[in-house]
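Subject: Protein record for review, amino acid sequence with backbone structure tokens
How to read it: Take the token row as a discrete description of the fold.
Enclosed: The protein record, placed directly beneath this head.
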Amino acid sequence: MSFLVLLVAVLLSEWLGTQPAIQRDQWFFHWRRWLAGLSFLMERPRVSRALVLLVPAFILALLLHFCGNWLFGLSAVAINLLVLLYAFGRDTVDDSIDLYRDVLARGDVQAAWHEAAQLGVEDADSWPELHNRAQAAVAYLCFERYFPVLFWFLLLGAPGALFYRLVSLLASAEKSEDSAVVSRQLLWVLEWLPLRLLGPVLAMVGNFPATMRAWRESLFGVAESSAQVLAGMVRGALLVEPSPSPAEGALEVDALRALFRRALIFTVGLIALLELL
């Protein structure tokens, strides 16, 4: 049943694209602000953060427990499907990736600096550095859209997938440096194992020796961020040039997205095989 829900969710996400009717995050930020306004939590930021993240996942677990058998189990299928579609990454980032790729294809390096900023890339000192960091940002966005969500869904069910997405939203929304560090550390922990499992998958669908070499170097690493570890494996999988021209950079973005599509297909097929064993 879990694999069927997972497969349908991935197919719907790939076929229909963005789901603005489902991926509405306002409720989460309203919930966060309401908790932050409670007097007894104002001096307890860790307790507030734990409640922000755990209560929605706990309510979802209770909903599945008490309502999952309604309509011969179809209610559980519907709930899991909706939660997975919600937990997948936001397609709005695809627009930024497309714009960055298009300006590279035109050879407009000046515009590429602006579009790279939309991907979170700032303070680069040169065009090669800008592109390398933009490529790392694109790779991370491709990774976090599906792979950690699928991992935690298979391990902990829909509450696990929801918890990961809420941590990701919180990490990107918190303005206080101390709070943001804590949320990003939690996000790093949640991504550590899915990222290490993705390495051999990227090797199977990309350049095997170079990817596995980068994977072994970061296998037990704890100092690098998820984006840095992923960037190393992607460079190995694609054998990218250290200083590409803008036109070559556009082709690299296309190749990178194709790499993650192949990785997604391989991952879903591997899960199907494990389900049959």
